[in-house]
Amino acid sequence: MNSLDIAKIVLVLIGAPILGCLLAGIDRKLTARLQGRVGPPLLQPYYDVMKLFQKDNMVVNESQNLYVVMYVVFVILSLLMLVFDADILMIVFVYTVSSVALIVGGMSTGSPYARIGSSREIMAILSYEPILILYALAIYLLTGTFKLSALDNISNPLLMYIPLIFISMLFVMNIKFKKSPFDYSTSHHAHQELVKGMLTEYSGPGLAGIEIGHFYEYVFLLGLMFLFWKVNIIIGLFIALIAFLFVIIMDNITARVYWQWMLKLSWTVLLIISVVNVLYLYVAKIKLI
Amino acid sequence: MLKTTIMLLITAPILFSFLFLALGKSLYKFLAWAFFIVGVVSSIMLVLDGTGKVEVAGSSFALFENIVLILEVLVILFVFYVSAKHKSWPTLALIAIQAVIAAYSYMNVAKVESASFNIDQFSQVMILIVNIIGTAIILFATGYMDHYEKHRHLDRQKTFFFSMSFFLAAMNGLVMVDTLGWLYLFWEITTLCSFVLIAYNQDEESITNAFRALALNLIGGITFSLAIIMLSVKFDISNLSAIGTSSTTAAVALPVVLLCIAGFAKSAQMPFQSWLLGAMVAPTPVSALLHSSTMVNAGVFLIIKLVPAFANTPLGIAIAVYGSFTFVMCSALALSQRNAKRVLAYSTIANLGLIIASAGIGSPLAVAAAIMLIIFHAISKCLLFLCTGEIEHTIGSRDIEDMSGLIKKAPLLTMLISLGMISMLLPPFGVLLTKWVSMEAASSNPIVSIFLILGSALTTVYYVKWLGTILSSSMDKNAVHHLKPETYFPLSFLGLCIVVTSILVFPIYDYFIKPQVTTLLNIVNIVPTVSGQGGQFTSEIGAFAYAVIFIVFALAILIYLATKNMFTPRPAGYYMCGENNLEKDKLMFRNGIGSYDKSSVSNIYLQDIFEENKLTTLGYVISILLIVVALVEVVVL
Amino acid sequence: MALAKSPWIIHVNCNSCNGCDIEVLACLTPLYDAERFGVLNIGTPKQADIMVVTGSINYKNVNVLKNIYNQIPDPKVVLAVGACASTGGIFHDCYNVIGGVDQVIPVDAYVPGCCPRPEAILDGVVAALSVLESKSQGKIKGKDVKLKGNEVPSNA
After folding, report:
1. pTM for the model
2. How far apart are CA A191 and CA A177, in angstroms?
């Protein structure tokens, strides 16, 4: 590990939450504008987190904040692995640890609302996990290795060969951002039925930790989209931005669906088009390296 | 030196089994401790003795050969006796066929002049698993069985411990011996022991299930003996290791398929899976023994030993597809189960399917993954089963929903079982490492890799559901908790094993698995080369940074402990829309008519989509089809 | 500082006729847009800063109110919206009504009116923010309200 790597790590640790916070701010501002409102200031997510740190740490269960730490730490780890071009399959698995930590954290509080939210989030895993791994498999098929470092040596963008997986990944973004129509596990807007879903019993610093984790997660997820056009950084960032705008617009134009509906969508449409795309890669034997 | 250790490994468990018969119940605890120590010491001795072949020839061979013959006859007679006694016609018919085949082979097949034991790294690994985990299970059973029998008014502990110990002896023999005739005897003894153990409760259900297990395993036994006859008559092969190195690899394909079917039956793969589910009626230590260290491992052991015969052939691909199909099907079946033991049973079958799939792919990396998965799966699954048994004693139920709030009732037990579950599905633990390796190895085959991907998502779902339920807190505390050293020592020991083996994964790979894979596949160097530097399990196609994840896990716990008191935690009640009943139970709320209700939330089991009967039928059809395809492929090509 | 910029409210309806509730929700609509002050309507008291109460207190809901009040982490403020929440309103002498919110929990700001206009409610929230800030600086904790107080008859 040389000094450049350390600088990179520090940059990710500090830069990613700032970027994620800005993204969350843009999201809220844009949503407000789409609804014809003025909306909160751009730095509103930052104010929210700072406020939460000043609040009491109210817990129902002594160990519930352990899972928050697990969640944040593993999201950061998966982001770092992405930045350091690690094994994509491994990144997906590490990322699963963070999702599992959040789910178990919700369940550990024992609140009925949190348990309903967590059960639904488990079903979300069932919907997006296969697509993420298929994405990893597609990268392997195209480059001959699961290591992301190989993406630096290719000349054509991934998107040209795996457009169907790209479409599926857009919906995975929607599920993972926990935005409408897939915001059935935890949401500001679902409090009539769910209160706050998984996060019902989290308050103060615990919730602030989860929010910070979300900032890192935003950057991580958009990083996954960036990989689709890594050959040109500008276009790659543009693709990530498109994905982000897609999520926000979907959030605003759709209503919350049943989790069953999402499961059906994912296993009938998204999974099948991803599999078709992967089979195409097998048959066509396209190798970028 | 090697010879004495081999003898010790077979005779010591037999000696202990007779000691269990001879001595009183009060001494079992000490016997089990002694057995555990003997098992650990003798298996480590075998590892230290190194690898090699031991020939048994001359007068001692004649003596042993006669013993084997007598035992074989005894096994057949015993099965005849019990099937006639309980009027179980299918087993009677099967054993009659078996007897005919045995008589035929006695008269027509040329006798071998010597027998041999083949100790390679894989055998060493299996011996370590059988003798350390197996004896730990027996130790656990001494603390478990009294309570179990008290509830059911049984007094059959002598039979129980006798069969358990004898089982280990047979298993030890099975993984060391190279001569097919002897291997077959040990194979049948494990079938018989499992029959006795499953029928332990002696009620109608357990006897039916025991006969089902016997019948399905006898089918495997018949294909096994047919394969032996074929090999010896047609190809003059009487050793297991000779099958792979035989120059006529394509020609021996039919007997290899027959041996594989025997392995599938033993490992409870898809058309045969019902016996393993039925075996759940037996006491938990039996399930743990069958599922983790012994019975089912015998099947995959045989299949991995046969890898050279089918690696990189169409047959190998068929086996890989078959294994991965079982993996995804049984993971889907586990999703809809509420009974913890059934979840574990399906998870076992699924993982064995993964092992078989990896073996079928036959690339060096895949075979390495298969052997490693046997190790890690055995430890984790054993811990999970024993913990489930202990939970059953603590809360009186094996329904996952009833386990909610277990962390408050039995914290240590919950942490141990959580460790077991986490090790099954999350990095950096061994099972996930091997799953990662097999996924990377399978990536050359589209069908196998898609099956593995779907199966692994399903696996995550059913374990997370269970993990969340046991870790959720509730205020209900009516549980009996008994901390016995005989039960908690094996549990903690296994937990420690999980962590240690996962940390030492690369040394294990380097010492045991790499040489084994090179000998099995007859190659000089494993390609892609795997290195273990910098706490990473690296090959050309990927890297698994287990050390980093362990450090991050530790870091997360440290951060939690450091920040825990920075923001003083203030306990509060649940949010129940303000209608809590705070005096009685924090999860109670006032309902519309002013009385109190308890809130309860159940997990999602998707029983309408993943319905057990429907999926099982589908599984039978497809798996039988796949086996038929494999057979046809072999006969035609 | 940050507290005043991000007030999350929990809306508790005690025995209200729904008139005030509709006005509270009107604050969140594009016309009044409370979110420009960072206001979010949160479902769980565990994450709220401002408790907005509408309606008078009666024997049936008094424990609910106290319970939710206890579950809001400090620092916190209570805003009584409407005549009923402030004083008991037209229901003040009903047999089952205890009175305004301040009879059972400490109230920091009152919004009069039957029903109050959304502008008035927003004014109330903004007024409550300075109280919230001063509570945070002075580390003033809300008291833990006992559920069975003397305002509840023993047979209730």
Report:
1. 0.91
2. 18
